[in-house]
Sequence to fold (460 residues):
Amino acid sequence: MKYAAVSLILALAASPASAGEPALSAGEAAAIDKLIDRALADDRAYEILESLTTEIGPRLGGSEAEARAREWGAAKMKAMGLKNVRIETFDMPAWSRISESAAILAPFPQPLAVTALGNSVSTPEGGVTAEVVRFETLTELKNAPLTGIEGKIVFVDEKMTRTQDGSGYGVAVAKRSEATYEAAKRGAAAAVIRSVGTDSHRNPHTGMMRIRDNEKMAPAAALSNPDADQLARALLLSRGPVVMKLDLKTATTPAAPGGNVIGEIPGRTDELIVIGGHLDSWDLGTGAIDDASGIAITLAAAKLVDEMKGKPGRTIRVVMWGAEEVGLFGASAYAEAHKGELARHALAAESDFGAGRIWSMRTKFGEASAPKAKLFAEALRRLGVGPGDNDASGGADVSPLKAAGVPVIDLNQDGTDYFDLHHTPDDTLDKVDRQALKQNVAAWAAMLYVAAETPGGFRD
Fold:
């Protein structure tokens, strides 16, 4: 059902205290309220999410499953009435896991829950059996002598702090990328880390390690948090060495097909608002939280704006970025393919932090446009979204656009439980709260409406 929309204009409050500050008129606020009402009653985001996670399942970057996901995405966009739908392809290196196992062999024999980290090399045939050396933090390992742990298994036991905004991740994730190199420098046979996560389940968290040219890597894996606790206790209680076996088999392909799926809601101008999520996921779960939710939220929100009477002021471009998890290949390919039109990109944003309720917003606008953030804050206030600063990131796939000067906005979700599920087998559809998902769609729809109709843009 179509409904009338009031064309958004930049209104100024009349009181002396707020003279010159942008504000929504009563008519604009009413139009946004109507949009929010529709979003809170709309189930399309959940239906999109259910379809992607069920019909495709896990979607590791560069895999056959991710290729099927691209076809799914293009078909879904066309069915929903988006225009100019296409798949923009690129080549990328692809990594995959074949098998993985770990166990304490002595003095307390028992299996351990483990998963290979992305880009890990395989252990030698038959695995690695060696004494474990524990380091409480990555810094402790970095400060360790370059001799003395040859042939041993390095164990980095650094924990992650639970926070609403996910800020604990930046500290904890460093060990995921660097332990392999620090172990290899010291001649270690392998590296294992405590999972980069906040849960207490026997679900190890995978994740990508960056390839460094001309630097040797040790086979590397993550232990679930309870198993990391168990290994640490074994080291404490043992009267001698703790011997562990690690067996990893992985594979790499130098050039595999990747791609971004793009569809548009044409506006009255050719200025672009770019939104979306990443289509790929890790292979352990079905990627419901990371990031099928972002795909569903942004596509559903864009469609709600499309259903308003008349075209939006700016064209809304929805992007399902490919191969984010394994190296931001889709983000880089999009920025390169569209570098000639970046000046027309008025605003960009990505949903890639699960499906928790949005609780705050941040912008990254030009200095003169920074006051326009108040328009977004006013539109979102009804949904319990508070204003933030002007230092938004935009999201990982948006980072090349931000670096090129495109203004960005963050709609920050509650991530208190996000890293319980992140990159684990537990990232499945049942973890999504349907009401929180609708609140996300409502916030994104309101944001899109303001972004599409506010005159002057956000760069200056």
About this structure: The first helix runs from residue 26 to 40. The chain has 13 helices and 16 strands. The domain at 11-93+255-453 is CATH 3.40.630.10 (Aminopeptidase). The CA atoms of residues 343 and 406 lie 8 Å apart.
